[in-house]
Amino acid sequence: MTQPSANTVHDVVIIGSGAGGGTVTKVLADLGISVLLMEAGPMLALADLKEHMAPYHVPHRGAGAKGEAYTGGRTGFSYSATYGGAQLEGEPYTVAPGSDFSWFRSRILGGRTNHYGRVTLRFADYDFKGKSIDGLGFDWPITYDDMKPYYDKAERFIGMVGTVENIRSAPDGIFQPPAALRAHDVLVQRSCAKMGIRAVPARQAVITQATNGRPPCHYCGQCGRGCVAASNYAASYVQIFPAMKTGRVQVLANAMARELIADETGKVKAVSYVDKTTGSERQVRCRTVVLAASCCESTRLLLNSKSSRHPQGLANSSGVVGKYLMDTVGSSLSAYVPALSGMPRYNSDGYSNHLYVPWWGWDKQQALGFPRGYHIEVGGGYGMPNLGSFTGIVNRAEGYGVKMKQAIRDEYGTTVNLSGRGEMIPNEKSFCEIDPDVKDRWGIPVLRFHWGWSDHELNQVRHMQETFRGILEGMGGRVNAGGGRGGGAGQADPATTPRVPISRGGAIIHEVGTVRMGNDSKTSPLNKFCQAHEVKNLFVADGAPFVTNPDKNPTHTIIALAWRTAEYLAEEMRKGNV
Amino acid sequence: MSDISRRDAVRRLAMMLASTGALDAVGARTIHAMTAEAQAASGGTYTPKTFTAAQYRLLERLTDLIIPVEDGKPGALAAGCAAWIDMISSENDRLKSIYTTGFAWLDQTIKAKGAVDFVSATPAQQTALLDQIAYRRNQSDELAPGIEFFGWVRRMTVDAFYTSEIGFKDIDYRGNTHLGAYPSPVASIDYAVKRAGL
Fold it and tell me: Which of A187, A246, A337, A400 best probes binding to B when mutated, by most B CB atoms within 10 angstroms?
């Protein structure tokens, strides 16, 4: 790709093309503003998405080159086109002794949105005011009413499925009709009802009606591997490709940002980067910059942008950049459900989730023994056979021959899995900083992570496990021992991981909070419009501005917040303030 | 669809995606039809990359015992499980060593029971040995290498079989296809709800 001229001053440089960067690109382009969009990975070639392939269409069938799925090394996904993982060649990070943290990164236009779970949940009104309610953590400088118009805009443009339910923990949105529930969904829903818990159709960024030129979902069930038809959300094919047609978007791919360069007035005047195709050092000049490189990459950029004027890094005289790192609390439990054995076979693929259980205990907090809450995601059905799909059954059944095959047949589609996704309270033990000794392949200092769960999260996981057991046994399920930690980014280290089945830090891939917003510049790097208090032409539009991490998967709020930030930026540009 | 027309179709779809950023329903259906058809015409005989001819025959026999022909339905041999295991092992020294050590153990152990080697042993001799090493409850110092090896070959044979087109049919997988709507699986729901007493 031709590199942009070092003399051109771009109105807006956006660093990162995921949910935040994609949204800012789309909103600004629609408002007539030209942007330069930098992405550390390559352009996405839609025809490369492989979601319709079966394992037998690729020689390794997902085992990875050299059979890594069996003997270790980089795990799987080789035909899933995820373009990312915790281990990226030449791009290390470090974890402090006694901590356990996994950092999944994606280097591709659209980032992690190309393959994420499409769970699309609005924050509840109380989610913005946690500290005022129970004294823990911090309050947001904005309210649900500030965010509602932007949730509306995002849902209208992107499209999502769901149903109006009037549940306080799960505000209703602008919904397209969801797909029918599957058999295991119905069992979970009825078992929950016996316990007085409501389970409702899942809210997913999947369209069932043609929307903005995109055809409705065709129910192939492979959302986690991309969508060649663009019937679910990814920043790449829903926002950036259409925005490119306005002629106001220049994509600079394979550009690894190194540092933001400030002028004598303290404003960002340029972004230095490595052109990964040649390894050369380059700069682009900018009037404004939007950081959307993912929570921790944006943090790393700010901390690496040191100068005599900004000795702790840019926008960081508060010293809070990197602090209060949060992930989602994950835990799961599965069961063999005999009622599903021998059931008339059907195509259970549909789309990622058809049912979910919103949090039900917001008004019984005192009795629960932990603060805040969680929602439950439901897994089951006759998934596409993959490597390892039947390893568990075979290990239990043992033997060989027709009898072993019969065990596989009997158990296929009979497992129901419940995954909890809960709120973590921000704490002093969980943060990231620049490692003083380690640099990546381009000489850019890397992040060092510190991590610790508190009793709040461990108690929450105990409650999850009891609840899951009740739901699964309520449908006649025989619970599999142990419970799972959930999340996909590598194996937990038993030395640093608690005994309750809680996810590793970072494993749910919902890291947020390290460049938070707030009204006080002494305790928050960003103001309530995600604009740096100290650097007026610097905005952050990924998960980093989050003040807390409620039990709502963050992507929807990243999009809505980025939408709001982009409109504010455009207005400030119009007024000549930035 | 021939290779050339498939390439043309892919190019057409890619252009559609590049120009509109999206694919219509017909396009999505075409992709599914094409991928379903792809590689249907492979076949022919496989030349082992890793194992000797004798080792490969032994591997084929093991996979055949693990997933045999069942009521006329093709098993591991037709699904090419041995070829896949050989191909993966050819790129992975640890797997190669697990298999070659395991083959030697099987031949040696069955020789002690009066056979020449595993492949030429009678089916009764072969299954007698498998009946010992296919279960963890038979764990002993003597059988430990066999039990561990059989765990590997069983796991990878099952993987290879069910990720093949033959395996997809055998397990009756019906998904990853194009549907115009997602109907409620009423008969299945009725069955499950009744059996769960819900």
Answer: A400
